[in-house]
Structure formats: structure tokens, C-alpha cells
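Ticket #4471: structure export looks truncated?
Reporter: QA, pipeline team
Priority: medium

Steps to reproduce: submit the single chain below to the structure queue and open the exported record.
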Amino acid sequence: MRQLRCADLKPGDLMLKAHDGTMFAKLISFSERLVGQLNPLVMHAGLMFDNTFIIEAQNDGIGGNDLRVQDLRYGYIVYRASNTSMAQGAGTCAKMMFDINQRQGTLKYNFPGLPGAVFPVSHGKATSAAGMDELLSDILEGRGHRFFCSQFVVYVYQFVAEQNGIRGDQVFSARDARVSPSTLASLLQKNAWFQEAGYLLPNER
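Actual output as written to the record:
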């Protein structure tokens, strides 16, 4: 892996944040270790809109931060979609959902759903194309939806894949609401649709 700077990042890059030492991160890590997840030091996931602005589901719902300012102290592993159209679509879709939440406040963080990802019984089948379209229609019409970080990332990529004529379950063969950050890291390590682009060190942008 090579060290990246913000100038190296691209729209749609999938960002896996390493353990940041907070109490919330320690709780997630402990829970993931307890059930034997393979990457318990991966705490969070987000998507790049451009090469500095990351879109992520966090405490206030789907929001955005500048990697050079608000997220400067965090380190990330960066994965990049091999399909350029899908990557650009993911960045655009993520930004659209960010804009909706800024205007309407309807895309909240999914605290109740997080235990289901950390303690999965099974990952289940990916949401159907019709189901993803229906969810997006609800979001656009202001009915809202709750996401946790990795759920948001998987939904966006499955949805955009379908828009590009690729089955969502080929990109991530999992139900979005069952994918913890640790599980997402495992899925990416053996995923032909993504390549490990490198890493971003804390305080180095």
C-alpha cells in the first residue's frame, strides 16, 4: 500500500477509518472482537464526494467533513471502485443524500440498527433493485430513513451499481443493514469491484 494525500483521492473512494481512541470506537471494537469479526480496528466508513470532502453517516445523520480540517486527525484505508462510472455515481449519490439531510434533516443516524450489524445472525440478501428505488423515492419525498456509516456506504454502492446495469448483490453480496465497518472491510478485501488504493495517515493530508 502507498501513502496517499488528499490530491490522490477521487470521487467515490471508499474510506475506512481506523480506531480513533474514542469511547464509542472502543465499544464498537470490543463488540466486534466479542463476536469474532476479523477487522475490529475498522471503526467507521464514508464516501468521498471529491478529493477533500467525505460524506458519512454519523451522530447527526448523513453529513460531510473536510479531511483537512474536521477529520485531519484520523487515519483511513482507501478503496477505489474499478468501474469509474460507478465510482463517480457513488460520489454524486452520497452528496445528494448529504444535501437532502442538510435541507430536511430526515436522514438520521441509525443507532437502533447498529447492534444488528455488530452482532449479525446472517448478512442476508442484498436489497432488491425495486426496494432500493422505493427507498430512494421515500428519501426524495422527505419521508426519511436512518443509516449507520457502513450501511450508508453499502446502500449507495448497491444502488449506483443497479443504475449502471450491475446487480447490487454482485458488488456487495450482503444486506446493507447487516454490514458493520469490520464486515465491510472483510468484504472489500476479496471484492473484484474494488482495489486497495492506499492509506491516509492522521495529520498528513
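Status: closed, not a bug. The export was complete when the record was re-opened. Leaving a note from the reviewer for reference: The chain has one domain: 6-200.
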